[in-house]
Amino acid sequence: MAGAVYDDLILHISPDKFFLESLSSTQSVLVIDRITYEIVLQANNGQIPAVASRKPIAGLLGIISLISGPYLLVITRKARLGQLAGAEVWRVVETEIISYARAEHHLTPSQLEANRKYVAMVQQVLSTPYFYFSYSLDLSHSRQRLDSLRSSEFSSQSLLGRSEQRFVWNLHLLQPIASNPQLHRYALPVIHGFVSINAVTIAGSRLTWSIVSRRSTQRAGTRLFVRGGNTLGHVANFVETEQLVEAGGSTASFVQTRGSIPLYWQQRPDLRYKPPPSLEAGVGDHRECFSRHLEEQARLYGQQVIVNLVDQKGAEGRLESRLRTVAREVDNRNVIYEPFDFHAECSKMRWDRLSILLNRLAPHQEQFGYFLQEREGAFLLRQSGVFRTNCINCLDRTNVEVEKIGRASCRERV
């Protein structure tokens, strides 16, 4: 398949070089010099020394530079999740961090300690079970986005070259390889988020129902420390969630998004269990942050319905009030603001009251529709807008509402 990444790599490690060899394409070998850091593709003429250790790897995540020098990041074990669009999808299970340097004698004691902490931090991140990839499928793209980009030129590009860079978690790690297209078959794009693929039978008909959530890299950071938007219009915790139903060769796709409130605000951690969020002063005009974010979202997804689930009193209420005001002042015709005080409306386990919000959203859901593609590749329907849901963390309250909207869409498609 054009642009596919090698799925059968062997990593050979010698004292001065790394060699990456594909078992299905033995004519060439990727050579990484551990001394000069040079990366070249060479004809495989038996240059791999007999003393080199040999290990199969599931893919190359990239290269990271720490205090002691560069490190090679490789996937050593993977788990199969199933098939999407006829392509195998995998989850990263185990990784390995391999130092270019053979020893650490060049480091001072303080550098050595700092380097070990950084290595441990990288290992901790890579040990989380939320990294996914495919050797042949553009997992960073929704099906509608793939269809809109479809062309002979696009199809001829590598998997890395045609990826949606917002959602390629290891894009920076692959930069030493990305600059040379000849090396792209060794570069494995990975997304961070969640993937579930489920083969089911309903009324005698077999279908595959899947969810792919892609977390953006554009304003990354941990809970509490990174909130709201920045001057580029990027927001924290932005995730694109796509529901897919594949049956009889046809594919239906429905996309929702979530992301932090697109204003300048913060929630600095302190000794309190739940530090109050507050608007930031002196960063910039909230209308500018809001406009840049929503204009980009409308360009990417069409009309936007902001479903804001935060409290409408207290510290959260001050955020809601400002967002309501900014949305009214900006007056973007592609943006509809729908506030819903989740905690007040659904207090004492009154989950049935979510129907109030769902009834308000129903006309928009009918208008937006979903993407539908036939077996032959021609599309029958396109999704014209998305629900952009948020609470404070874009987690619990957001998850409940995204599930409700998704369930309604799934019933319609099935």
Structure description:
It is a single chain. The protein is α+β, with helices and mostly antiparallel strands and 414 residues long. 25% of the residues lie in helices and 33% in strands. It is built from nine helices and 20 strands. The strands form three sheets. Strands 6, 7, 8, 9, 10, 11, 12, 13, 16, 17, 18, 19 and 20 form a 13-stranded mixed beta sheet that branches. The two termini are 31 Å apart.
Q: What descriptive keywords fit this protein?
A:
25% helix; 414 residues; 13-stranded mixed sheet; 33% strand; alpha+beta; five-stranded antiparallel sheet; single chain; 9 helices
Structural category = alpha+beta
| Low-pLDDT segments | none
- Portion of residues within helices: 25-40%
* Rg result: 24 Å
Number of strands: 20
